[in-house]
Amino acid sequence: MAKNSTETSALTQAGLNLIQQALSIYDRKLQLVVGNRQFQQMFDLPDHLVTPGAEFSDTIRYLAERGDYGAVGDIESFVTSRVQQALAFEPHYMERTRANGRVISVEGHPLSQGGWVTVYTDITPIKRQEALLRARSEELSDQVLAYTEELTQTNRALASANSALEETKRELTEMESRTRLTAEMMPAHIARIDRDRRYTFSNRRLGDVMPGRPSDLVGLHASAALGDEFYNRISPYFARAFTGEPSVFELVDDASGRRIRVALTPDHDDDEITGVYILSMDITQEAQARAALTQTRKRELAAQLTSGVAHDFSNLLTIILGLQSRLAQMPLGEEAQKMVAATTRAVRRGGTLLDRIASISGRRELHFEPTLVPDMLRGLETLARSTLPDGIDLKIDVSELGDPIVLDAGAVQDGILNLILNATHAIGAGPGTIHLTARPIRETWVEFRVTDTGPGFAPKALEHALDPFFTTKGGEGSGLGLSMVYDQTKVAGGQLKLSNSAETGGAVVSIRLPLRKPLQPISPRLVLLIEDNEDIRTSVRDMLTTMGHQVIEATSAEEALGLVDLDGLGLILSDVMLEGAQTGPEFLKGLRAAGINVPMLVMTSLPPDDPRRAEAGFPVLAKPFTQGELATFLSDEVRI
Prior knowledge:
- It is elongated and about 145 Å long.
- It contains 20 helices and 22 strands.
- Helix 10 runs antiparallel to helix 11 (334-361).
- The relative contact order is 0.05.
- The strands form five sheets. Strands 2-1-5-4-3 form a five-stranded antiparallel β-sheet. Strands 7-6-10-9-8 form a five-stranded antiparallel β-sheet, with helices on both faces.
- With 640 residues, it is of the alpha+beta class.
- Pfam families: HATPase_c (PF02518), PAS_4 (PF08448), PAS_7 (PF12860), Response_reg (PF00072).
- This is histidine kinase.
C-alpha cells in the first residue's frame, strides 16, 4: 500500500509539473501540501520552502525580506496581515507587479476541508501588449492583431491550467471519498467528538456495535447517542482523553448484553486538544472464548493439584472402611456400635465428596447439539417436580425461543436442576414459589433465570457463593453445587450472576449462555467410516445415513487404504484407536501427506489429556455422542 501511495504521489507531481502556470496547495494550517516546479522557478524559492510542510508565513517573510513586495515597512506586521487574509479562506483574484518588473496574476480557491489551491500566471506579455495598444493603437494595427493572437494563446494556456486545477480538486475529493468508504467498511465504530462532546464525524456503525443506538451522529451529544447509563460510565475516560491521556478499556453494554472494547485517542492541534477520536468494537464472542479458555486453564490447574491428593485420600478411605467393617463384626457394646455406624456414614460421605471434587477439577466434555428449549425444560420439569415438597410450586416461562439453538442440553439441565434444589432448600417447608424463565437477550445470549421466594442471599453468600466448598447448609452441604454450575457456565463461554429480587426478596440466579443458531447441515456426501467396534460402527453409520450421507466402512487403516481412491469420497471419519499397527490420526496424517484433500475428522472415548487424543492433529468428537451432536460437529468442522 505504501508503494502504491508513493507511485501515486510521484505521478501527481509529474502531472502538475506539466502545467505552464505555477501552482501551490496549502492545507487549513497553511502548510504546503504540494507545489509544482514552476512555483519554485517563478519566485526563485529555496528548496526548504517548496518541501511539503513548509509554512506559508515563512514563504511570505522570505519574499518580503528579498523586496519582492517592494517597501513594506514592518516585515512581521506585513507577514501577519497576509496570514490573516489567507486564513479567511475567501476566493480571490489579483494582479501584482514584482520587484523585478514582472506582472503576475494570483487566483486562489479555498478547499472544502480547509486550505488553498492557488494558480500564479506570468501576464507580463499581456500587460505589455495592453500598454502598446494604448500608445500605438492607430499605427500598429498589424502588431495588435499579432498580440491579440498571442493573448488568445495565453488564454488557452490559462484554460488548460484551470482544467488541471479542476482535475487536482477532483482527485482530492476522490481521495476523501475513498477514506470515508474505508471507514464505513470497518467492522467497528469510528468517530470523533469535539470539546463539547458532540460528534463531528462518525462512520455510521454505532448501531452495529451497540444495537438500538442511532446511526446519524454528527451534531449529537455523546449522551444522546450512547444513552445516559453508558455515557456516565465512559465519561471519566473522555475527561482523561481531553487532558491528553489515551486509553483502551472494555465495558458491558447492559442494554444489549454485548461487551465493547473502546479506544480513545486525543486529537492534537498544535499544543491544544480539540477533540477525541473513538474506536469501539463488539468483542462479545472474543470475551466468551477468552472466559472459556481461562476457566479451562483453571480447571486443568485444579486437576493437577487435586489428582494426587484425591488418589491418596481414596486409599485412606478404603483403609478406614475396611477397619470399620472389621470393628462392626466384633462383639461391641451398643454405644460402640453406634460410633462405628456413624464413622462409616461419615467415610461414605467423604467418598461422595471425593467424587464431586473429581468432577469439578476434571475436564468435562461439552456436548453441543441443536436444542428446542421448551422441550428441554419440559423434561427438566418432570425431573424437578418429583423433588419438590407439596408447599412449593414451580413455574416455567419460555419466550421467543421457538427455534432450535445450539446448547449442551445435559449440562444446562444439570445446572438448572441444581439451582432448583438450592431454591427448594432456601424456601424450606413452604409455602413458596420457584420461577424459571428462559429468553433471548438480543441475539447475543440466551438467559435462564431462577427466582425463589426464600430469604435471598446473605451479603457473605453474594460474595462467596461461587467459591468451591462455601456452603450455608452447615454439615448438610458440600459447597460444590453452585460452584459446579458456575464452572460449567464459564467453560461454555457464559456468565452467571447472583442477586436478590427487589419484588420478592428471594434469591435470583441468572445464567447467560452464548446464543448460537444451528449452522446449515453439510451437503450429502460419500463418507468413509473407520471404526473397529462393530456396534459403534453400526450406530454411527445409521446416524450418517439418516442425515442423507452414503457410507463405506473399514475396521483398520490397512482396510481403509483400499477405499480412499473411490470417486466422490467427500469425508473421512475415523476412530483414534483401530485394529492393526496404525492409529486413526497416524493414518489420516499419511493421507494428508500423500495429497488426499478431503475433510478428515476423528472420534474417541479417550480422556482429553491422553496424548493420543490431545496430539491427534484433527478435530475430535468425544464418544458417546448423539445424532444431533454429530450433525453439529460436522457443521462446525466441515465447510458446506
